[in-house]
Specification:
Layout (H helix, E strand, L loop, with lengths): L2 H27 L6 H8 L5 H5 L3 H26 L5 H16 L3 H16 L2 H23 L5 H21 L8 H13 L18
């Protein structure tokens, strides 16, 4: 490794450190809390460091979305590599575990995700980066639906992703100590796999993702 390589690795690591801190601030304080000064403090770097990397707030948010997408793809790739559901019940159990983690241990990251989605609705340029990550994650979900017997995996993964989002968001807003998403997810996956056609087959496929 050359001296130049060492410098580039250091720059990349510091940039990721700053963006991870910004994501944490976003999850704890919301969009308004994300300032250069707040990110500096959260990252434990000298005042002005974040501004050196991202001169404007828009540039900072673009970096946040890019970093968030990287982390989500990596997390979901790890999950997908470790799981191979072959029945509706196994898939429902896997997604229930994912949902519990999103609303529990990964709560801060999930709140950041929803904040990013809202920000993307206001600033369309952010949508492209989110869409790229969602497409990769949707591919895994589609493969899972096909593996458990779905005749319409693209349609079904959209419906299932919407349900996961709804369950997660409701748990975040109204925490329930006895939260267990598995029964409702099992019901939905089983019903989707059982609908080979009919009105449900005419459902218009929508962009979706399982990312948190």
């Amino acid at each position: 490794m050359t001296t130049t390589d060492v410098v580039l690795v250091g720059v990349t690591t510091r940039r990721a450190q700053i963006l991870d801190a910004a994501i944490a601030v976003l999850g704890r304080q919301g969009v308004r809390g994300v300032t250069h000064r707040a990110v500096d403090a959260a990252a434990g770097v000298p005042l002005g460091t974040t501004s050196n990397y991202f001169r404007t707030r828009d540039a900072l948010f673009e970096g946040v979305v890019e970093r968030f997408a990287e982390r989500e793809r990596a997390a979901f790739d790890e999950l997908a590599a470790a799981a191979a559901p072959s029945t509706p019940q196994e898939l429902a159990a896997l997604l229930a575990e994912f949902t519990r983690a999103a609303a529990g241990p990964r709560r801060e990251l999930t709140l950041a995700r929803f904040a990013i989605l809202t920000e993307a609705a206001i600033h369309p340029p952010l949508q492209r980066k989110l869409g790229e990550a969602a497409a990769e994650i949707r591919a895994w979900g589609t493969a899972w639906m096909r593996a458990v017997g779905s005749a319409h995996p693209l349609r079904d993964v959209s419906l299932l992703a919407n349900q996961v989002d709804a369950l997660t968001l409701h748990q975040l807003a109204y925490p329930d100590p006895a939260f267990d998403p598995e029964p409702s997810l099992t019901t939905l996956v089983t019903a989707l796999v059982g609908t080979g056609g009919g009105q449900a087959a005419n459902y218009r496929e929508q962009p979706c993702d399982f990312s948190r």
